[in-house]
Amino acid sequence: MRDWIFSRQRYWGEPIPIIHCPRCGEVPVAEEDLPVELPHVERYQPTGTGESPLAAIAEWVNVACPRCGGAAKRETDTMPQWAGSCWYFLRYVSPDCDTALADPQAVRKWLPVDLYVGGIEHAILHLLYARFFVKFLYDIGVVPFDEPFTRLFNQGMIVRRSELTGKLEKMSKSKGNVVNPDELVHTYGTDALRLYELFIGPPEETAEWNDSGIEGMYRFLRRVWHWVLETAPRAQATTAPDIEQRLHLMLKQVTERLEGFRFNTAISAMMEFLNYVLHPEHAAKPVSRRTLQTFLIALAPFAPHLAEELWERLGETDSIFAQRFPTYDEALTRLPETVVAVQINGKVRGTVAVPTDSDEETVRAAVLADAKLQRYVAGKRVERTFFVPNRILNLIVR
Predict the structure, then answer these.
(1) pLDDT digit string (tens) for 31-59?
(2) What is the reported pTM?
(3) What's the CATH class of domain 337-397?
(4) How many CB atoms are located within 10 Å of the residue 355 CB?
(5) Which one, of 335, 258, 331, 333, lies nearest residue 299 by Cα?
(6) Domains of the chain by residue range
(7) Domain at 214-332, CATH class
(8) Cα–Cα separations (whole angstroms), residue 376 to 294, 344, 382, 390, 396
(9) pLDDT tens sequence across 201-227
(10) d(CA 255, CA 324)
């Protein structure tokens, strides 16, 4: 740990409330004169002398010493941006409080912050400095906690392959490899771009940007659009039992994956549901208006504009974002049949469909009876097995 250099030689920043007196030395500004505000100026370019631009504003710099009354000068350095950004979350809970840093009741109700989402570069700068501030405020009794954030989630970076070197590089203006979202929005719409950003990969990992990936999101949204508008006029009172079950399974997956920040797989769950209901085997089955509404509410956080538009076209007058997020029936999330991945000596060779919660013996029998899998085990002896119910069976054969 090293001392933190807190001064900056620029106009933008909180003025440091210190007055320099040739007789008294450094004197703090009187409390009744706080806060010291920046003067309104036409120009705030650097002075060329290494001093802050404030140093060139004589009428602001020259003041009387609060202690002896003699001629003195204000401190012309300003605080860094961290001075405000390290405690802004305290003001969020009571932005109109004018008697304290923050209203104590609001602080106790809302803080500390439940979740902080930021890049890994924040760990050394903003997070470190925010902890400095909060620990100081805790020591002097202003806040009742000494850690500002309860949970931290670091998102990964978006990278792009260089046309010159072929290497993956972090997107940045200096490299000239940023993507202009306006062009993509014009072609595909805001929701398709938003979906692709969420679908590109696990949010905590580095992901490679690829413009063509938006095509898949665009097609998905078009299918949603046509399914809802074509199904609504012939909506039934109830939904087919198997579709109802798939709906509850989707809701469970989306809910759990949202809570776990797995946005990409939450979108996959909605895609799988739509693929199921649009499959020729199921397309003619009854679907209720309530099922359409439930699907749109689940989709709304991911594709807000399309979901709101379709919600209105269903005849709803309140915003879709005024609705409660749908809940699921746990009993309906258990499908009668499960697809289990089959590995032979650690390599995936296929899958088998078996009743949900089948034991190892049942799954193994299904594997040995499968014509496509028989060639990997024919004439060989199974020495060991590794089995995860409803997930995977790995046969070690010799």
Answers:
(1) 999 989 999 887 777 777 888 889 888 99
(2) 0.71
(3) alpha beta
(4) 14
(5) 258
(6) 18-74, 82-155, 214-332, 337-397
(7) mainly alpha
(8) 45, 7, 11, 22, 11
(9) 888 888 888 888 899 999 999 999 999
(10) 13
